[in-house]
Amino acid sequence: MIKHRSFVGLDVHARTVEGCVLDADSGVITHRKLPAATPGIVGWVAALPAPQIATYEAGPTGFGLARQLKAAGITCLVAAPSKLQRPSGDRVKTDARDAEHLTKLLQLDQIVAVHVPTIEQETARDLVRAREDTREVLMSARHRLSKLLLRHGLVYDGGSAWSRPHDRWLREHRTSGTAAFTTAFDAYYESTVQAVARRDGLDKAIEEMAANSEFTPLVTRLGCLRGIAPLTGFSLAVEIPQWDRFTGNTIGAFLGLVPSEHSSGQSRFQGSITKTGNLHVRRLLVEAAWHHRRDYRPTTRSVMQPRWDRAPVAARLRGQAGNVRLHRQWVAFTARKKEPVVANVAIARELAGWCWSLAVMDD
After folding, report:
1. Does the predicted model carry a pTM greater than 0.70?
2. What's the number of domains the chain is made of?
3. In sequence order, which residues have a C-beta less than 8 Å from that of residue 251 and are 6 or more positions away?
């Protein structure tokens, strides 16, 4: 193990950085306020007595500083903010105290580090999250448009909403009210059309990247499970870059799909799921779990067949076992008269384990 001399805590903001360094030999703690320019921070840390180790909290400033420190030969841990231990009686919060707190935790080896993705992994994740943001914008735009019509007594009952017949019905009622109504309708309808076009463009870019990138083998293997289409598989691949950190049992806890618990003495209380970890991945798994509710007939898998044809034999067999098992779990929950939404979360937790088993499989 390397015995570090300088322990550096950095409280990083968009325009300024508060640095704190602890010299392990002398025990002296010093503070330094720095500009946010990465070369200046790296130069200051590199000038400290070697070997150095630095840390800062993961946040909106990204991982560029960690990459530059690593390139300079300096160990850098990006701390998970939710895992930092803080004194309950500490009522004073300043940048200098935060930097010093990070320094002391670093010296005590109490920093829980997050994975620093490569630039390719980070940009792929940005693409997926741009698609997620567009989905939310589209949902809001559609709600505004439908509620505008509802306030004027216009309710669509011709089948599925946001289909071609529904779109024709919307345009037929564009001039159903006053000029002010038409103007408001045009504004909401235009925002809906733009969001759909933006979503479709992002979907095309993701599908192309899923078919030809470093994530393609993993996306192909994950596609052997029902509910894991290329878009979902690509999102899982870029949002969880280190599957081998987990096991089939711990992946559910990492994604917040396990029950919360408060136990003391002889009492034990379990509540709703913890909802910690990656919200985007958790939502995708919960949505995918609903697909396993329907009867599973492998002989008529018209949607699954193209995905199975691209996957290795071992992945196909593993996916087949997972699909059978998850549907049987749904049948068991239904027989026990479990609430569907509760049962679905349990299926999503087990689905996360099956995804893990495919992710760590050799190509």
Report:
1. yes
2. 3
3. 243, 352, 353, 355, 356
Give me the tens of pLDDT residue by residue for the chain, a chain 363 residues long: 578 999 999 999 999 999 999 999 999 999 999 999 999 999 999 999 999 999 999 999 999 999 999 999 999 999 999 889 888 888 889 999 999 999 999 999 999 999 999 999 999 999 999 999 999 999 999 999 999 999 999 999 989 999 999 999 999 999 988 999 999 999 999 999 999 999 999 999 999 999 999 999 999 999 999 999 999 999 999 999 889 999 998 999 999 999 998 888 888 888 899 998 899 999 999 999 999 999 887 755 567 888 888 999 999 999 999 999 999 999 999 999 999 999 999 999 999 999 999 999 886
Range of the domain at 51: 6-107
Contacting residues for 317 by C-beta, under 8 A, at least 6 apart = none
If asked whether residues 34 and 80 sit together in one domain, one would say yes
Q: Is the peptide bond before 51 cis (omega within 30 degrees of 0)?
A: yes
